[in-house]
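Reopening this one. Same input as before:
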Amino acid sequence: MQAVKVSFSFVCAGLLLLTGCAVGPRYQRPMATAPDAFKETPPNWKQAQPADQAIRGSWWEVFQDPQLNALETQVAGANQTLKAAQAQFAQARALVRFNRSDLYPTITAGALGARERLSQNRPLATAASLTRDTDLVLSLDVAYEPDVWGRVRRTIEEARSNAQASAADLQSVLLSLQSELAVDYFQLRTLDAEQQLLNNSVAAFQKAVELTNNRYRGGVASAVDVAQAETQLETTRAQAIDISVQRSQFEHAIATLTGQPASTFSVPPSPWTLPPPAVPTGLPANLLERRPDIASAERRVSAANAQIGVARAAYFPTIALNGTTAGFESTSITNWLTGPSGFAAAGLSAAVTLFDVGRRRAINEQARGAYDQATANYRQSVLTAFQEVEDNLAALRILEEEARTQDVAVAAAEHTLQLSNNRYRGGVSSYLEVLTSQSIALSDERAAVDILRRRMTATVLLIKALGGGWNVSQLPAVAARPGGTTPASSNGSTSAAQ
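Same output, byte for byte:
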């Protein structure tokens, strides 16, 4: 009996030593090429100073607008789309703890009390046979499958990587919502500027109508001049009214983003006239660390790599401690929990699949295919990130040049309008010349506002493309063992178990 106990102890010790290995490839982050510098850089672009190498977390503060700051702070706490993403991350984090429990034995306890009366006329019964029997049992059952080949550890690694990917997805959703709010906000503010421009034009055209009516009554102007002036006035007034439709839609969109009913939400009019601020872009190589969507794609590559190890472990025997139980059994409660009432049993089993018609091989090929797919998706995310940055840098560079040209056009149109008004008042030209100058000047001024709107949108999208001040080091650590956590590494990678 002693020899059996010693042998069983050696077997258990051997299993514990074997659990130090894990089959499957060790994870390495896929290579992704980053250029040395961004190609598109606006002229006279602000060079980042040592204390200004990257965008900060509250990136919207760069616009220095208190109303925008107040709205952005409401997104994180009230947006329902973000709450759904937070719940998804909570599920992924719980799945890590669920898979981690497979590293340890499952222990169940049970108690049994039975009292039975036996027939005196049963077969083989004698006069001395007992007719009443009591059975009291208190037992502990242990079921444990040692993680000899690392299947459980690979499963935990996969779940942990997926949880970190879910955390990065959460940050991507937050950044998208924040940038969408900023874009809608600047659309609304530039519509306010356009509304103000049209209202000023309506006031100016109203005076022109009064002047033309006076000239008509004095016999200097014709009825055609009056009709043309009134047409220009009402057309511009209708355009000013139409702006309200677009503004209301953006106001309602902002209400939804901040988790408020559109019926009770409003943003006071405040025209936006400031040019966009300069945004430090940093080095292209840093973009791989600053985009949450890239981090999410990289973590899913790690999860796919761990799944290869899980599939590989199916080729090895399954070893389990089964039939392991201990407890006390007695016919009387007085001696139930005493030494003589104790019992114990232990067993060890091993099983290996010898023939499965290529099932394990197919699973391995599927896992490797999933890894190749995740790697391709990761590299595509990197390419898309550089494209988005270059797109918005190009837009800002070109729009800045267009804005300077448009400002010259606006100044020339206003000067032409002033000359046309003077010529009309002096009786040198007809009102048609004034009308043409008014249309050109208003069109140029609205085009200038539209360019400003596009510049503000491109600035927000550039900040979003740069990651919005996020960094991969902000990936949360996901618990990997009881009483501790495994922090995320600097590049968001977690090595496979050895």
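So the earlier flakiness isn't reproducible anymore. For the record, The longest strand covers residues 132-144.
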